[in-house]
Specification:
three-stranded parallel β-sheet, alpha/beta, 44% helix
Length: 443
């Protein structure tokens, strides 16, 4: 069975960067009838917060990205320590005592000498007595994984065959000197023990994957299949990471982005298929193929997302918005007619409130000086209630015959007089919803 996972750290709110990872992993699991795991990566006790974890769940639920099981890394420290003990016993994990300043000096010397800044493994030369002395002086050291200095090969579902030269990498730290377990080890242990078959993540993890492949095999497991999607940039091609603070899902929800639009947009951004409107998940899932994605940096544009959201909203059926409209104060029996009239004209669902108010309370007419007599005459010709979808057509036809006006000169002044606006919903559908029309003297 296909098993994917989304593994956010609860150190902040979800933003478009890690949301894209969630969407792709969710779609892959659903396309292949697999399992999607939500794994809260909360191994950092100082930065992890319960409120962030709770908000991550709420955001995923809002988007309809339901998970089949949930795991928390903070519940699994015993598994990570057991794996670390196994690596130590096999000689693949060693203790190093250099301070950050010492490591920085080593890197600078290597760069000045024209060599790659790779950790020199000086810690492997320490005797037992030297290690004891260093622990007494500095405390416990960090634990590094001893890489086999050879090429690591794997087939990436997006980027194709990959070759990572482990000789050009520093032995990764798996446990910090303060005892904190790091992502590189915890993630491997989880993926192996949870049966994760596919890992979809950003292109900035390609090199990490090379090191993790060796850790998987050192622990007796085969690595999952990897797919490293392109990184997102802003509209100018700059690093999106600098703007992530303003691109949290909370912020996008506040400006009225539709959840269906958000998922569909992320599902196609950077893929060979165009961004399309989907009002149901089935067709989106069916069309998904991880191999459709490219390697080039992908531009993310909030304005483009907002336009896509508006298109999606206008295409939603009544059933998809009914509960939300009722929540905005509209009676259930009025929703179908109201949505048929107003829905195709909205950019955000909350804009429906002003249209509902207009229907209930009436609008302040806008009448240009040159249209005063025309509108006054037309007001006297408004058909008696009840009105239906044919009322606007019959009324404007009668006004046309009586005044000789036609086209824009006929329809625009009447729209302004009824709604106080230059544009809006189809008047044939809107007019039956108008409870008050002030040009007709309805108080």
């Amino acid at each position: 069975m296909t098993v994917t996972r989304f593994a956010p750290s609860p150190t902040g709110y979800l933003h478009v960067g890690n949301l894209r990872t969630a969407v792709l992993n969710w779609l892959l699991a659903r396309k292949l009838d697999g399992t999607f795991i939500l794994r809260i990566d909360d191994t950092d006790p100082e930065r992890s917060r319960q409120e962030y974890a709770d908000q991550i769940r709420r955001d995923l639920e809002w988007l309809g990205l339901t998970w089949d099981r949930e795991e928390r890394q903070s519940d699994r420290f015993d598994r990570y320590h057991a794996a670390a003990d196994e690596l130590r016993a096999d000689g693949r994990l060693y203790e190093a005592f250099e301070t950050p300043l010492e490591l920085d000096l080593k890197r600078k010397k290597q760069l000045n000498a024209g060599r790659p800044p790779v950790y020199d493994r000086a810690a492997l030369e320490l005797s037992a007595a030297q290690k004891t002395a260093l622990r007494a002086e500095r405390g416990d050291g960090a634990w590094r994984f001893l890489l086999d200095r050879e090429a690591v090969h794997f087939d990436d579902l997006i980027r194709g065959p990959q070759r990572i030269d482990a000789a050009s990498l520093s032995d990764p730290v798996l446990i910090r000197a303060d005892g904190q377990l790091l992502y590189t080890l915890a993630s491997v242990v989880d993926d192996a023990e949870m049966g994760v078959t596919h890992v979809v993540r950003g292109a900035d993890h390609v090199t990490n994957s090379g090191a993790q492949v060796q850790i998987f095999r050192a622990l007796g497991s085969e690595p999952p299949m990897f797919a490293h999607n392109s990184l997102l940039t802003d509209v100018d091609g700059g690093a999106l990471s600098k703007r992530l603070g303003t691109l949290a899902l909370n912020d996008l929800r506040e400006i009225g982005i539709e959840p269906e639009a958000m998922v569909a947009y992320m599902a196609r951004l950077g893929a060979s298929l165009p961004v399309e409107v989907f009002t149901e998940r089935g067709p989106l899932i069916e069309s998904f193929d991880i191999e459709h994605f490219g390697m080039s940096p992908t531009k993310f544009d909030v304005e483009d997302l907002a336009l896509h959201s508006a298109k999606t909203l206008r295409a939603l059926p009544t059933a998809a918005v009914q509960d939300r409209l009722i929540g905005l104060g509209m009676p259930v029996d009025s929703v179908p007619e109201f949505w048929a009239a107003v829905g195709p004209n909205l950019d955000r669902l909350t804009d429906a409130v002003s249209w509902w108010s207009l229907c209930q309370e009436g609008a302040n007419p806008i009448v240009a000086d040159e249209d005063g007599d025309f509108v006054a005459q037309a007001a006297l010709m408004i058909p008696p209630r009840p009105w239906d979808k044919n009322t606007w057509i019959a009324w404007t036809a009668a006004v046309k015959d009586a005044t000789g006006r036609k086209g824009r000169g006929l329809f625009q002044p009447l729209r302004r007089a009824l709604t106080g606006m230059d544009r809006g919903p189809d008047m044939a559908l809107l007019m039956p919803l108008l409870k008050r029309v002030r040009i007709a003297g309805e108080a």
